[in-house]
Amino acid sequence: MNEIRNKIEDMLDHGEIVLASFHCSLEIFIYRIVPWPGVLTATNKRVLFYAEGFMGKGNEIVNEYQYERIHSIKFKKELFGSKMVFAYDSEWYKFLHVKENDADTFMEAVKEYSVKGSFQ
Hints:
By secondary structure, the protein is of the alpha+beta class. The protein has 2 helices and 7 strands. The chain is globular, with a radius of gyration of 14 Å. The model has no long low-confidence stretch (mean pLDDT 86).
């Protein structure tokens, strides 16, 4: 975890502060839908998802989401786990294996720094 946090901190701009961060899996499509484990981080400027590459081959995933382009954010409890979903531009992003406490802290940070102010 410390190695991943160090990589995330290296990606931050000057004056950017981590508000909330937790492990989860981003649902992506690689020939089929698969959960890709990584760390979702909210800062005072943006949201980042960082995932290490498969077997350390250097194909890491780094997604950046600007607050002004996040239209809604939701946390859903389901029978086989929990997920957080948010609308970014015209796409939906699903983050699986999310703990409720992590989601609460993260969603508060996103809502506070969002230009829109409130979500659905």
